[in-house]
Structure formats: structure tokens, C-alpha cells
Amino acid sequence: MIAILIALAWQNAAVPPAGEEPVAPYERADANAGATPFRGDAMWQAFGGAAGVHAIVDDLVSTNTADPRITDIFKNRDLVRLRRTLFEQFCYILDGGCHYSGQTMAQSHKDMGIQQADMAALVENLQAAMRRHHVPMAAQNRLLAKLAPMHREIVAR
Ligand code: HEM
């Protein structure tokens, strides 16, 4: 009961998690993650569990912000929030036992003018991050297949 009250208070709080900027209210739901999760432990283990996924997300965010092809898109963005919500999204999709508390892919990328080439650069950076953290190729490809359809919501038309 207390846990439920704390969760509700957190959901409605005007104060964002430590280090993050406030965000206009929106409805939280795992469906916002934009993909149905895998079932079972195999994918989560292939990614090295929580430590592995944190390392991959941190690597991906730093690589993206330093990548001259897409660095401008990440300027003045809340990277603390991005690391947290991206971790939650991957953890949720990989069946690591997380809930996703971020916005939908359409909401979170609107008005950024993201092009197909930007998407390709990000996917390339994700592949490099997964490789550096020793995710087996088959598991890399299975995650990429879950993310691929999201381009419909992310790439500007
Ligand atoms: C399948 C591909 C992608 C996934 C899974 C993804 C995932 C996410 C997630 C979970 C968030 C945070 C949502 C929130 O804060 O509520 C986010 C935000 C963001 N994404 Fe992506 N993204 C993808 C593609 C891209 C691409 C291609 C770019 C640009 C090259 C990009 C740039 C950003 C930026 C700058 C933010 C921060 C928005 C802000 O806080 O102002 N994303 N993305």
C-alpha cells in the first residue's frame, strides 16, 4: 500500500528525479516504449544484465553526443533523463524486469527534424556499443529488429 502511494506521488510529482529537468505531464505506460518485450532470461543475460545495459546506454549516449553527424541534435538536451529512460526502455524490452516511464517515441522526438541518415548513424553507434560490450551478434540483431520499426515514429516526414 505504501509502495503504491509512493509510486503515485512520484508519478504526479512536479519535482523530477535528481539531476533531471522538469517535463510537461504525460501518461506513463510501458506501451510508450514502442515495442513488445522479449520473454525469458536469455536476452537480458546476453546483454550482461543491468550492469551491461547501463554500460551500453552510457557508451551509446557519449558516442552520439561526440558524433559529428548527429551531435547538434543532442545539444542542450537532458542527457541525465535520456540515460535513465533509455536504460528503462532497453531493460523493459529485454525483459530485465523494468517499467518504462518515458514518453512515446513520437512525443520524445517530435520537432527534432530527425532524418533517415541520423537514424542510420545512431544504429551504427548502437551496434558499436553492443560490440564493445561483447553482446553476441544474434542478440544484437534481435534487439535491432525490435527497434527498427520505431523509425516510423522518429524520422521526420
Ligand atoms: C530506435 C531508435 C531510437 C530509440 C529507441 C530512441 C529512444 C529514446 C528515448 C527512450 C528517449 C527518452 C524519452 C523521454 O525522455 O521520455 C529519447 C530521447 C531523445 N532521442 Fe532518441 N531514440 C532513437 C532514435 C534517435 C535518433 C536517431 C536521434 C537523433 C540522431 C535521437 C535523439 C534523441 C534526443 C536528442 C533525445 C532527448 C530528447 C529531450 O530530452 O529533449 N533518438 N530517445
Can you describe this structure?
The protein is mainly alpha-helical and 157 residues long. The protein has a single domain, classed as Globin-like, CATH 1.10.490. Helices cover 55% and strands 0% of the residues. It has eight helices and no strands. Helix 3 (49-66) packs across helix 6 (116-132). It starts with a helix and ends with a helix. 24% of the residues are buried. The mean pLDDT is 94.
Distance between the termini: 45 Å
Give the radius of gyration.
16 Å
**Helix run count:** 8
What would the average pLDDT be, to the nearest integer?
94
Helix content: 40-55%
Architecture per CATH nomenclature, i.e. the level-2 architecture: Orthogonal Bundle
Ligands, ions, cofactors: protoporphyrin IX containing FE
- Let me know the largest β-sheet: none
CATH topology: Globin-like
How many domains? The number is: 1
Count of strand segments: 0
CATH class annotation: Mainly Alpha
**Oligomerization status of the protein chains:** single chain
Helix-and-strand structural type: mainly alpha
N-to-C SSE series? HHHHHHHH
Query: What share of the residues does DSSP label as strand, in percent?
Result: under 5%
Throw out a few tags for this protein.
157 residues, mainly alpha, Globin-like, 8 helices, binds protoporphyrin IX containing FE
Summarize this structure briefly.
With about 160 residues, the protein is mainly alpha-helical.
Describe the SSE topology.
Layout: H1 2-12, H2 42-46, H3 49-66, H4 79-93, H5 105-109, H6 116-132, H7 137-147, H8 151-154
Helix pairs in contact: 3-4, 3-6
Bound molecules: protoporphyrin IX containing FE.
